Amino acid sequence: MRTQRMEETRMKRWRVIALVCTILACATLMLAGCNSESYSPAAKDQTVTDSALGKSGTLRVGVNTSAAPLAGQTQSDSRIVGIDVDVAAYMADQMGLKVDVVDVGNNPESALSDGQVDVVLGVLVSDAEDADFWKSEPYLATGVALFGTAAESAVPTTDSNPKIAAQASSKSSWQVTTLFGDGSLVQQDDPKATFAALNSGAARYAASDAIVGTYAAKTSEYDDKIVALLQDPTGYCAAVSKSNTELQSAVASAVNELANKGVMDIIESKWLGAPLDLDKITVIKAGSSESTSESSSAASESAASAEAAASGEAAAPAEGEQAAEQAAPAE
Fold first, then answer.
1. CATH domain 2-141+235-261 topology
2. Which of these CATH numbers, 1.20.58.1560, 3.40.190.10, 3.40.50.300, 3.30.479.30, describes 144-230+277-327?
3. In which region does residue 42 sit, left (phi positive, over 0), alpha (psi from -120 to 50) or beta (all else)?
4. Which residue intervals of 107-227 are DSSP H helices?
5. What's the pLDDT tens digit per position in 143-184?
6. How many angstroms separate the CA atoms of 132 and 110, rounded?
7. Is 207 exposed, middle or buried (0-12, 13-18, 19+ CB in 10 A)?
8. Torsion over CA of 215, 248, 240 and 329, rounded to 10 degrees?
9. Domain(s) of CATH 3.40.190.10: residues in the chain
10. Out of 35, 148, 261, 304, which residue is the most buried by the measure of CB atoms under 10 Å away?
């Protein structure tokens, strides 16, 4: 009996792996432009009625191609690729639908209200608290992270005045000045330059969105790692129109399966090298004068609320793009 159970477990594992590999293979054959071609998944019963979709038999998914590795366009043929493209392919497959991936920039609310897409991915939970659309549970954890080189293990205190590279006018640079002061910030033009500054010795640390930073370090072939978080973790979620309850239910189910079936771990490994477990990373709190080993999972709800109020996180500009000057907090 024990041998039989082991065999059944092994067969289930292989079926999941085969399913995910098929989905990710389909994602690589996605769109040759912003919103034109679509792939055809294996025949599966459609579980969402056409009345819940803007295009019969097709899930139209919005992404932001300026937010790699969530989404971006290849230089050779402008195909849209990235974490969110793979997530979109999986969601559509679970619903028995084809998928169209559309670049909607960083305005999910407008894309949904205008009927441009059915779902928008890559929506940061902390930036959409008052948005007029339905949000799923996060499918990908993130947060402003502090990176160090492979040899760096020390977590800086807020009064130690460390030099920290970060993209100018980004949420990360704002978080650095909030916690460590203006003198600690070493401004850079983009994530790539941020990690170049870290590895050249121009800064001891680099601050970036955990997902964006991990990808930037990986693609630059730097052996950098997250040493701390500068805020409690948040996450990326899916957005659907408030009135489309049928699609909300289907998206919620797909997001749940992404985690429960291990699909998200495989997608993260593909783009980041390995899944990120941010719950075990030290969170640097405002006013900390000594290193703390407090993990984000152990932080109390009241402490998280106090940090959000103190940092004004909702007013901070988005990571991975140049923020409008009027949106950035005063320094």
1. D-Maltodextrin-Binding Protein; domain 2 (3.40.190)
2. 3.40.190.10
3. beta
4. 108-113, 171-180, 191-200, 210-219
5. 999 999 999 989 999 999 999 999 999 999 999 999 999 999
6. 10
7. buried
8. -60
9. 2-141+235-261, 144-230+277-327
10. 148
